[in-house]
Write a structure and sequence with these properties.
The protein is an alpha+beta fold. The chain has 16 helices and 20 strands. It has two domains: 132 residues, Beta Barrel (OB fold (Dihydrolipoamide Acetyltransferase, E2P)), CATH 2.40.50; 259 residues, BirA Bifunctional Protein, domain 2, CATH 3.30.930.10. The structure holds one RNA strand.
Length: 488
RNA sequence: GGGCUAAUAGCUCAGUAGGUAGAGCAACGCCCUUUUAAGGCGUGGGUCGAAGGUUCGAAUCCUUCUUAGCUCACCA
């Protein structure tokens, strides 16, 4: 990318070198940060010397003096330069330092006539000459495409973007801390898998040259984590990237971060308690309260959260009581009456129809946080049946702001039943459902050695971040969201 | 993948009875010793997303393509 402004700046680099200065010196050690300096000076207004480093984001020149705004990782501070103070170096600062350059500033803190705490510079060192000009100072960078593609510019110009990613790191740290304190062990399982399992999703395919075989990027770590539970580690979790070859939207990125955790001798009720306590605790840590605003709505994360059976939820929002419906034809008729498009649900299988009813009539209504419990056994092959009604399983999903944020069950550990359920998935795959699960015979073999009764949980970290950051799009929670390449 | 909308200077944006482009900021030159989006005077800067088409003439009208946003579908 070349422009006349870039060319002028490249010319300046040449001139700076001719002056005997290095436009990209090997090192510089600042000893102070903007925010600390401001705080310290405002406490007793006694002048003191500082040594800062940062980026010039504004510059105002008045002949024999000038003002700059310097931005470092903790914030902005004003720098003042004066010809009598800086002598020959003043001309260098005035002519060769541009908006966007990284500089080091040594000087003394004082207060301007207008009352702003400012550093009176006596030495300015160029640390890195910028060739590309920064976006305009007032409107900044608003073009969404450029903000995502060149996130570094977005972060320079919109510091709150940078802050959000720092918060993300703190949330992840808080989650790990919460689990470490409860004796969970962090494990790592294969991302390159021969049989992608643990979720209903289309996988990405890749290729191993030396083995001359295709491999899949994981869609979930679930089946490996259960192998570890079987192996005897009782409390484990994995936080990491999973990949699903599906559409992109404000709620979906092809790769996203998920935490899955498994606890032996626990069930989905224990997972529910853990979920609400962990998330409430993290939100309290980060936001200072369990009551937060999300996109104009108030969400209360104070425990305990609401629990609602799926059949009850469907009854509440659509008027249909699944337990009173005789067969699928009657359900289809009622679903159409409830407003579902007739052509879309025509011929749909009974429980799939029930699921669609839930998705269409209930999900977006759930502001939450609320646990929806007891999903149809038919649609959840890896969960344990509800002993009081085997048509349903011991499972919950967590809904916040009309979106799914977590999924958990009492893990199915009956190898024979598991095998049957996986075989059903295989036949559905054969009949055209490309999101049905693959058959993983080694996983079944593992269960045949006996897995303890176990509770398992998965939480979408990026979606949780949307809530915490009050972000309308998942892209605001990802430093580098997926983008199509620009054609040359 | 479908629908709707958008793409003009480095950035933010104007620009339709079609007549080969403007502003502010940024840049460059000059003036200016306390500014806060500093100010004043002047200068340079664009294959108007790409390719075709209609026309004497296209940023503007038509077609296709690319990218993005929203939305639907799929899903977490």
């Amino acid at each position: 990318m070349s422009s006349s402004e870039s060319e002028i700046r490249i010319q300046k680099i040449q001139e700076i070198r001719e002056m005997g200065k290095d436009p990209y010196p090997p090192r510089y050690y600042p000893s102070d940060y903007s925010a600390d300096v401001l705080k310290k000076f405002q406490e007793n207004e006694t002048p003191f010397q500082v040594n800062l480093a940062g980026r010039v984001i504004l510059k105002r020149v008045f002949g024999k003096s000038l003002f700059m705004t310097l931005r470092d990782s903790k914030g902005d501070i004003q720098v003042f330069g004066h010809i009598e103070q800086m002598k020959d170096e003043y001309e260098f600062l005035k002519k060769k330092i541009d908006i966007g350059d990284m500089i080091g500033v040594k000087g003394e803190v004082f207060k301007t006539h207008k009352g702003e705490t400012t550093v009176n510079a006596f030495e300015v060192t160029l640390l890195s000459k910028a060739i590309n000009p920064l976006p305009e100072k007032f409107h900044g960078l608003t073009d969404v495409e450029t903000r995502y593609r060149q996130r570094y510019v977005d972060m320079i110009v919109n510091p709150e973007v940078k802050d959000n990613f720092v918060i993300r790191a703190k949330v992840i740290q808080a989650i790990r801390q919460y689990l470490y304190q409860r004796d969970f062990i962090e494990v790592e399982t294969p991302i390159l898998q021969q049989i992608p399992g643990g979720a209903n999703a289309k996988p990405f395919i890749t290729h191993h040259n030396a083995l001359s075989m295709d491999l899949y990027l994981r869609i979930a770590p679930e089946l490996y984590l259960k192998r570890i539970i079987t192996g005897g580690i009782e409390k484990i979790f994995e936080m990491g990237r999973v990949f699903r070859n599906e559409g992109i939207s404000t709620r979906h990125n092809p790769e996203f971060t998920m935490i899955e955790l498994y606890q032996a001798y626990a069930d989905f009720n224990d997972m529910m308690k853990l979920t609400e306590e962990m998330i409430a605790s993290v939100i309290k840590d980060i936001k200072g309260s369990t009551v937060i605003e999300y996109q104009g709505k108030t969400l209360d994360f104070t425990v305990p959260w609401k629990r609602l059976r799926m059949d009850e939820a469907v009854k509440q929002f659509s008027g249909i009581d699944i337990n009173q419906v005789k067969d699928r034809d009657e359900l289809e008729k009622k679903a159409v009456e409830a407003g579902l498009p007739a052509d879309k649900i025509k011929g749909m299988e009974y429980w799939k129809l029930f699921n669609t009813l839930f998705e269409e009539k209930v999900e977006t209504m759930l502001e939450g946080p609320v646990f929806i419990t007891h999903y149809p056994s038919k649609t959840t092959p890896l969960a344990k049946n509800d002993p009081s009604n085997p048509l349903f399983v011991e499972r919950f999903e967590l809904f916040i702001a009309g979106r799914e944020h977590a999924n958990a069950y009492s893990e199915l550990n009956d190898p024979i039943l598991q095998k049957e359920k996986l075989m059903e998935q295989v036949s559905e795959k054969k009949s055209g459902d490309d999101e049905a699960m693959y058959f993983d015979s080694d996983f079944v073999n593992c269960l045949e050695y006996g897995m303890p009764p176990t509770g398992g949980l998965g939480i979408g970290i990026d979606r949780l971040m949307m809530i915490i950051l009050n972000a309308p799009s998942i892209r605001d929670t990802l430093i580098f969201p997926h983008m199509k390449p620009v054609e040359e």
